[in-house]
Amino acid sequence: MPHCLCPTCYRQLKFITKPCCQICGRPFEYAGLDTCICAACMQQKPNFNMARSILEYDDFSKKLVLAFKHGDHTELTPLFVKFLCQADPEIFKDIDIIVPVPLHWTRRLKRKYNQAGLLGQGLSHRMKIPFNPTVLKRTHRTESQGHKKRSQRIRNVKNAFMVNTRNAVIGKHILLIDDVMTTGATLNECAKVMRKAGAKTVNALTIYRVLN
Hints:
Blueprint: H1 7-10, H2 39-43, E1 50-56, H3 59-70, H4 77-84, E2 97-100, H5 105-111, H6 115-127, E3 136-138, H7 150-157, E4 161-163, E5 173-181, H8 185-196, E6 201-209
Parallel strand pairs: 1-6, 2-5, 5-6
Antiparallel strand pairs: 3-4
């Protein structure tokens, strides 16, 4: 079947399910914690209102992500969009617009596409929610976040984004889309600038989440 994985590969996927942190979506080990907030969010509340991810990032999923992100395997987009549509319904509640995390123009030129944009566009079509890929702009080319510690990731993306047009976000409920959530630094910085520009709420949704 198109846009599907074979049974062997599908069984290797690790779906993130409840119970999880009400804010960032980090899964809890024990049941009965559906209304709880994790220690990290209690210590410092994120700028986004809610974040959810569909799958755990591991050795198997890494192959799919790298193929999609750097290997021109954009044919994986419908499969990933299908997964995104299975997210916690609360993440889509009252959403006015879907916004992808942007690439810097130099990286976009080299890669030829923004993987977050492909996901956002596909999700917009499936969920019938408007999509605007120009809301956010990456103001400078940041270093790769791979292999960086949390504090380094936060510094790396600080002041790296801006809102192109405030009228696009003022009073809006926004769904921010990306492929992978590691520490949440990029999502947090994007949410910060949109809320500062007048967005009412910002939720974040990714395919994968690093849980190590």
